[in-house]
Amino acid sequence: RRQVIARIGSDELAKRLIETIAPRYATRNGGYTRIMKAGFRHGDNAPMAVIEFVDRDTAAKGAADRARLEAEDTGEEAEAA
Fold this sequence. Notes:
single chain, alpha+beta, two-stranded antiparallel sheet, 3 helices, 19% strand
């Protein structure tokens, strides 16, 4: 726990990692994450990627993405006006 807190820097995130996420992967030998290419960043053309846990919570799947996309859509509509 000490090492996780030292690496992450947040007690709350370390607690969530140890109590919620780690038990999901207790029987898995490896391959905990998936890396998906997400194109190139505008401005400096740097390659971007999305990193996610393989067996992530299906109820939470896409919730952050939906919120981000809705915020971007409203921002683009405001800029167009």
